[in-house]
Structure formats: C-alpha cells, structure tokens
Amino acid sequence: MVVVTGRDFRANTAKYVDVAYRGEDVVVKSRAGSFRIVPISEDDIVINKRDLSAELRGALLEAKEAIEGKRKLNTLDRLIEELKEDSKL
To answer: What is the DSSP letter of 40?
Structure first.
C-alpha cells in the first residue's frame, strides 16, 4: 500500500494512477480525509446524475405504458438472454 499526501498526489498524479492500475492500493491523505484510488472495472457502472435521471424517467414511462396495455414488458429470462447475447459482441 502506498500512502501519499494530497499535495504529492496532485504533483504526481500519473505516477499514482499507474500504481493503482497495477493493482497496488493508493491512499491519499488530505485535510478533507483519506481516499483510496482504485481503477474502475468492467463490472462498475459510472453514470452522472443527468443520465441516471433520464434512465429512471425511461423506466417509469415503460412501466406506465405496460400498465396501460401499450407495451409488453420482457420477462427476467428474456432480459438475461439479451445480456448474454450482448456480452458475446
């Protein structure tokens, strides 16, 4: 584990990002607290507030249309099959 100050991290960001990328824990200590720097994996989801709001509005619209009989929702089994097909691409 590498522990660095906020000042050192700012001065050598590329160095510590590379250390984290190689799998070593990097902890940045500052007045605001301590933070661990880790790479984002393929399983992580990164979404901003605006995109999340749009996704939620879309999901609510789908549910409303299904309740009104305007749309047929997928079953869980079909959604899993779609995910499997997408992962093959």
So the answer is: P
CA distances from 18 to 40, 42, 51, 56 (A): 13, 18, 29, 35
Tens of pLDDT, residue by residue over 3-49, are 999 999 999 999 999 999 999 999 999 999 999 999 988 888 788 88
d(C-alpha 4, C-alpha 11), whole Å:
11
Task: Locate the domains of the chain by residue range.
Answer: 2-37, 49-88
**Number of C-beta neighbours around residue 72 at 10 A:** 8
d(CA 85, CA 78) in angstroms, rounded, equals 11
20 neighbors 6 (Cβ within 8 angstroms)? no
